Amino acid sequence: MSPLEQQQRAAVLAEVQTWLRTPYMHRQRVRGLGVDCAWLLIKVYNQCGLLPAIDPGDYPQDWHLHRGQELYLGWMDTYGHPVEQPQPGDVAIWKFGRTYSHGAVVMDDRRVIHSYRGIGVEWADMHEERLSSRPVLFYTFNSYGVENGGE
Question: What is the pLDDT of residues 49-78, one digit of tens each?
């Protein structure tokens, strides 16, 4: 791993921690006031220069229960690629309902930070029942190790 990539990953880990205790609010994106899991990832990775300022558009809170379109995976396939073994700063995406629809920042080999409905932005253990009982995919950003990768 290059020194630049190490620096970028450290910036992601630091930035996502600034969002801790932000309440969960669907389609919101204001640190300390409200954020959902999609906007948490967008804001963190954009702030760290790994993702352009994207707008995921309108998405109902229960889209993953009634549709088969893989919105999250579509976003991740555009800006990253799947990995078998995630590193700190990568993304974990779990299947809830019919699609992979819940994302988090990987902090280490067990823990993530995510915005969870009814709880807000929190540390979580990937091995706890609510997460470990679901299929999970891991992604890394193509822009790691690239200067101004998200622009």
Answer: 999 988 877 665 665 555 667 777 888 899
End-to-end CA distance of the chain: 21
Check if the beta carbon of residue 68 is closer than 8 Å to that of residue 101: no
Q: What is the homologous superfamily of the domain 3-52+68-141 according to CATH? A: endopeptidase domain like (from Nostoc punctiforme) (3.90.1720.10)
Domain map (residue ranges) of the chain? 3-52+68-141
Concatenated DSSP letters of 128-145? SHHHHTS-EEEEEETTTT
Residue 95 neighbours by CB under 8 Å, 6+ apart: 101, 134, 135, 136
Provide the 3-class DSSP secondary structure of residue 19: coil
If one compares 97 and 46, the residue with the highest pLDDT of the two is 46
Q: Encoding tokens for residue 52? A: 């352009």
- Entry pTM: 0.90
Nearest Cα to Cα of residue 92 among 44, 129, 136, 39: 136
In the numeric block, which tokens belong to residue 115? 């915005």
Q: Which stretches of the chain are assigned E, i.e. beta strand?
A: 29-30, 34-35, 80-83, 91-96, 99-106, 111-116, 120-125, 136-141
